[in-house]
Amino acid sequence: MQQSRRAFCPAHLHSGAGNRYTVQAGTPSGGEVKKVAEDKSEIDSRYRAPALEKGLDILELLATEARPMTLTAIVNRLGRSHGELFRMVQVLEFRGFIEQDPSNEGYRLTDRLFSLGMQQPRTRDLIEAALPVMRQLASSVGQSCHLALHTQGEMVVVARMESSEQLGFSVRVGYRRPLHQAASGVILYAFQPEDVRRRWESLLDPQLPEAELAAFRVHADEIRERQVELTPSKFVAGVTDVSAPVMRGGMAAAALTVPYLKKLQPSISAKETAELVRFAAAQISDQLVEGDSRI
């Protein structure tokens, strides 16, 4: 999801001699306004890297597009020239961040960025601890399960375990949804301190209306009390999402979820599945606590 870049905007501006320049209430003089504008422009320029920004603009654009984009389309969308972006596209392709679709010569993202994120020690250790427990959970309930993390106001699936049953439902790795639209997202949000919750709320795109946000907060508090979410899927009929938090340091590091598919033949119930999901999430959490204590 493309996030808007926030300009660097310090609370106060200082001149090289240490004099403070601020725009006070009322009508400032032309010289004061000019000095503040010049100082702010100078500060902004120190936090700009034009070549890097071009590359990031290309990656963010391709991340929002369902189909490959030609160089001409990229140039037009970003409002730049072929000369500015041609070499940047070549470098991104050479480094494996984008690839060319042979059918239309358009460019699309590879999974390179996702793979880099998965190589972080904390994430890698979490997945390594979770997979054996997830395998046992999938076997016990006869359903698939997956592990999700938070990223930029969304939940993203980083690992999954298929059921051994011939009939089932699973979510692919890389699947993402805004926090408030998925059981995993609500679980991740519910088990965070207030300052983290507010920061995550600011990342939601689009922003939630005030009434909807208030309802989301109340729902999250209710989930925090019962320690598990059990709710019909908002996207697939007949599936009930059962989710519980994987805790680390008093906060949810991940959400463990079973997309429970109701079957006609006798099977374990959704409520029984919820208890097993809670137990499995606690098992993973215990390993993370032990791992953290050795660092």
From TrEMBL:
Residues 49-111 form the HTH iclR-type domain. One of its GO terms (molecular function) is DNA-binding transcription factor activity. Residues 112-290 form the IclR-ED domain. Keywords: DNA-binding, Transcription, Transcription regulation. It holds the Pfam family HTH_IclR. The keyword Transcription applies. Coiled coil: none annotated. GO terms for biological process: negative regulation of DNA-templated transcription. PANTHER family: HELIX-TURN-HELIX TRANSCRIPTIONAL REGULATOR, ICLR FAMILY (PTHR30136), HTH-TYPE TRANSCRIPTIONAL REGULATOR KDGR-RELATED (PTHR30136:SF7). This is IclR family transcriptional regulator. It comes from Sphingomonas gei.
